[in-house]
Amino acid sequence: MPAAPPQNAERTPHGGPRFRSRFGGLWTDLSNARQVLAGKLELGRLDGGQAELLNAWIEHGFVVIEDAVPHAVIDAVRSDIESAWRGDDDRNCAEYLVDGRIDVGACSPERRSSQIKLLNMHAVSKATRDAIFAPEVAGFLDLVFERPPLAMSTLAFERGTRQPLHQDTAFVGFSSPLEFAASWIALEDAVGVCGQLEYYVGSHRIDEIIFDNGERCMPAELHNEEAYPVYLQQQCQALGLERVQFAPRKGDALIWSADLVHGGSQRVDPGTTRRSLVTHYCPVDVDPSYFAQWKHSGRVRHAPGRYYAYYDRL
Ligand SMILES: O=C(O)CCC(=O)C(=O)O
User: Fold this and answer.
1) Is residue 276 within 6 Å of ligand 1 at its C-beta?
2) Which one of 10, 85, 212, 271 is most buried, by most CB atoms within 10 A?
3) At 111, which CATH number?
4) Tens of pLDDT, residues 243-290
5) Could you tell me the pTM of the whole model?
């Protein structure tokens, strides 16, 4: 899985700042992002706390915001998840493990135990939208997107995922492949051997991987490719990047950039829950690739400057 030749130079041949990726990105991915950040601070467009978060984002590829979502909102999300598993709204669906294969289907109480993840909570639950657009979370997305965020998918997990290391760019497609971010919101304290989320600090800056189709997204036939996580781990280790586990309290949020290498720890006690909610967001003018693949909603306004869309895979 050879990486594409790196675009190491800080400037384009004509002197301009450059993105790490030939597919572009957000302003925080530009080679002069630190100077732009300093400029925004000096011009009074950011306060000190916002500048600190953005600096961490540019440097490390993620930020952690403690107490980002009030417990009352989290409790309402969990109650709506229960309703989804009763099959109350057919906009919900879930991924299931069936005979070792992943299947997507409707939600029902009987199928809950074979779930991998519950999809589309944001489509049916106002509490979920309140959580994923909590001011601390959406306010940070405003800063990195510089326009309103569009939440385009949610994944609700009940247990540790054991998901192999990956970059979301390999699996989540957009018309502008690097203009997106994800949030991971703790729906309970992640304690014990619960399969914590793991990530490599600064791994959004490893050399980019272009798949054989010439894209950042992995062709579907390679989705179970074992070489991919091994390759990512080698790249991160070669750069001496630190592998960290996220052990949040209920209501904490981690926001990661499109290329951060992350996955679920393999250490999961099957009796331990680890309830969490992952959301992918892009700027409102970017199209999720599913707009061209599946039946989907339009861009629905949740609140001023806060939009969402969802697909129908049933
Ligand atoms: O929560 C986890 O264990 C992994 C989630 C993840 O990697 C993802 O949703 O992209």
Assistant:
1) yes
2) 85
3) 2.60.120.620
4) 999 999 999 999 999 999 999 999 999 889 999 999 999 999 999 999
5) 0.96
